[in-house]
Design a protein that fits this description.
Blueprint (H helix, E strand, L loop, with lengths): L4 E4 L5 E7 L2 E8 L9 H13 L1 E6 L16 H14 L5 E6 L1 H12 L4 E7 L5 H8 L2 H10 L1 E4 L9 E4 H7 L15 E6 L8 H9 L5 E6 L9 H14 L3
Parallel strand pairs: 3-4, 3-5, 5-6, 6-9, 9-10
Antiparallel strand pairs: 1-2, 2-4, 7-8
Helix pairs in contact: 2-3, 4-6
Length: 249
C-alpha cells in the first residue's frame, strides 16, 4: 500500500485513509471492529476499482490501524462520525458503502445521516447492534475486569491471537445506536451477504435486517460454506459480482 494520507479532526486526532479518484459512483469501505484498511476485502476492492478506473476510499477508524487513539477508547458513535468525516471530506459525488461486520452497522448509521450522498449499501456479515449481543455474552470474569478497569479482553481466534480489548464506554454508548428494534427508514438498494458457517454473527441476523429495512430493494445471499470473514477467492468474486449488479449503469 502507498503511504496513507491523514485527515485531521477537530479534537486533534487523525484518521488514516487511502483514496484514489475515478469514475462514479465511488465505493467507500467500512471495516469491521479491530480490523483496518489493510484487510483482504478492502485491498481486493481497491485493486478492482483501480482496474475499473473507479473512485475508491478505505480508512481506519479512531483506534484502528494507523489512525490515532486506542480502540478501547472508541465507540459506535465515534466510528460513525469518523466515517461521516471521510465521506464528507475525502470522497466526491455519490457513493456506495460496503460494510463488513461492525462496518455493516456503521454503514447503516451513516446512510441515515447522509442518504442523499449514497446510491446503495452492501453488507458482508453485517453486525448491527453487536454491542448488545456482546455484552450479553460476557463471562463473569470479563464482567469483573470491565467493572474494575473499564475494559475487558476477549479471545481472538484470528491473526496473531492477541485478545480483543473492548471498553465499557463502547458497550454503554452502543445502546444509543441500536437499529433492529424498529423499522430502519432507508429507501436505498441494499445487498446483504452472509456465511452460514459464521461463528461470530448469526446469519439469521441478515434476514432480520432485511425485514427491518423500509426499502423494497433488499436482497440477501446466504453462502452455505462461508465463514465470518468471507475473504476466500470465491467470496471476493461474489463480492465484486454483487457490486457490479448493485452499481447503477
Amino acid at each position: 500500500m502507498d503511504q496513507p494520507h491523514f485527515l485531521s479532526l477537530r479534537d486533534g486526532s487523525r484518521l488514516a485513509y487511502s483514496h484514489h479518484p475515478g469514475s462514479g459512483p465511488g465505493i467507500l469501505f467500512c471495516a469491521g471492529f479491530n480490523s483496518d484498511m489493510q484487510g483482504t476485502k478492502a485491498v481486493a476492492l481497491d485493486a478492482w476499482c483501480r482496474e475499473q478506473g473507479r473512485q475508491f476510499t478505505r480508512f481506519d477508524y479512531f483506534g484502528h490501524g494507523r489512525s490515532s487513539g486506542a480502540v478501547e477508547d472508541g465507540c459506535i458513535g465515534r466510528w460513525r462520525d469518523d466515517t461521516l468525516a471521510v465521506l464528507d471530506a475525502v470522497t466526491s459525488g455519490p457513493q456506495l458503502l460496503v460494510g463488513s461486520s461492525m462496518g455493516g452497522w456503521i454503514m447503516l448509521l451513516v446512510a441515515l445521516q447522509r442518504p442523499q450522498r449514497l446510491c446503495g449499501l452492501l453488507g458482508l456479515a453485517a453486525a448491527p447492534d453487536f454491542t448488545a449481543r456482546l455484552e450479553a455474552s460476557l463471562s463473569a470474569q470479563q464482567r469483573q475486569q470491565l467493572a474494575a478497569s473499564g475494559y475487558a479482553d476477549l479471545p481472538n481466534c484470528y491473526d496473531d491471537g492477541q485478545p480483543y480489548r473492548i471498553g465499557r464506554h463502547m458497550l454503554e454508548e452502543g445502546a444509543a445506536h441500536l437499529l433492529l428494534e424498529r423499522e430502519i427508514p432507508l429507501q436505498l438498494p441494499v445487498r446483504l451477504i452472509h456465511g452460514q458457517r459464521d461463528e461470530d454473527v448469526p446469519w439469521a441476523l441478515s434476514l432480520t435486517l432485511a425485514e427491518r429495512l423500509r426499502s423494497d430493494d433488499v436482497e440477501v445471499q446466504l453462502v452455505k460454506n462461508g465463514d465470518h470473514r468471507l475473504s476466500e477467492p470465491a467470496d471476493l468474486q461474489r463480492l465484486v459480482r454483487t457490486l457490479q449488479q448493485l452499481l447503477p449503469d
